Description:
Largest sheet: 4 strands, parallel
CATH architecture of the largest domain: 3-Layer(aba) Sandwich
Bound molecules: 1,3-dihydroxyacetonephosphate, iron/sulfur cluster
Order of helices and strands: HEHEHEHEHEHEHEHEHHEHEHEHEHH
Oligomer: single chain
Number of domains: 3
CATH superfamily of the largest domain: NadA-like
Distance between the termini: 30 Å
CATH class of the largest domain: Alpha Beta
Strand order of the largest sheet: 2-1-3-4
Radius of gyration: 19 Å
Shape: globular
Amino acid sequence: MQQQRESYPEYEEDQERLKRRVRELLRERRAILLAHNYQRDEIQEIADITGDSLGLSQTAAKTDAQVIVFCGVHFMAESAAILCPDKTVLLPRLEAGCPMADMITAEALEEKKREHPGAIVVCYVNSSAAVKAHSDICCTSANAIQVVSSVPNGHPILFVPDMNLGNYVAQHTEKEILLWKGFCPTHHRLKAEKVREAKREHPQAEFMAHPECTPDVLALADHICSTSGMYKYAQTSQARELIVGTERGILYRLRKENPDKVFYEPWEDMLCPNMKLTTLEDVVYSLENMVHVITVPEETRLLAKRSLDRMLEIPRDY
Ligand code: 13P
Ligand code: SF4
């Protein structure tokens, strides 16, 4: 269970002071703060935009701010740097990575491509710029089915690096899909038995799940979608109770936007430690010192951008 911070008046005061300082610095630097839906509550609270990987990439691609402070993990800031070479992209905690993204390298991908000549590489955005550069098109959890469906028939698809998302997509398309064996440690640990228990405890509740969950967990879901898709589903569903199969940071906005609904966690350890690294202090330090600037070598950037641009041409459908 995540430790709850005790609420001391000095702590609250300090938090408010830090939030004011962040907003002041954002104005001074003509910066925009983008935060992923799994970030700490206080980071989400002061963000200009909170969103899923696709929404944040789209915002980064069209913002006219000079500086983008990315509160998320490294591949997300890197995607912003790929799309916006004329802007300064800051990642407040350099060590905030994604273990799934580290489960594939450009060299290993090249080797696999040699084993499957003619395969089209669809690359989940949870990957490095180098891997994107060696892929044909990117996808996120919000558009993976549309991206894979857009690939012309007659080519096998090499789907990297998330086998769970790839397997989910394979069930919704006719395409031949070869899976890389990567996975998200946070979602992979959610067991179907935990979901069944939660369903037994809350028989009226619907279960929504992120496609990074394992196939046996997804088989129990009433709705499968990206993190931002969950906000939309929570608002449109008739259900008054929902069991949430993704990282617990999402609960902040779900509860705030739906005060009349109840959200349950099937398992209280659904936590991505990397997503929780960034604090308000880090954001202040980042903006004061303009660190850590995320850049991508130009040759890699152009190739990776081609894969991201192809994805961004496909209209969003939650
Ligand atoms: P979303 O794009 O759905 O927000 O997912 C990103 C992610 O890292 C999920 O673990
Ligand atoms: Fe990566 Fe999983 Fe964390 Fe998402 S939740 S950033 S996939 S480790």
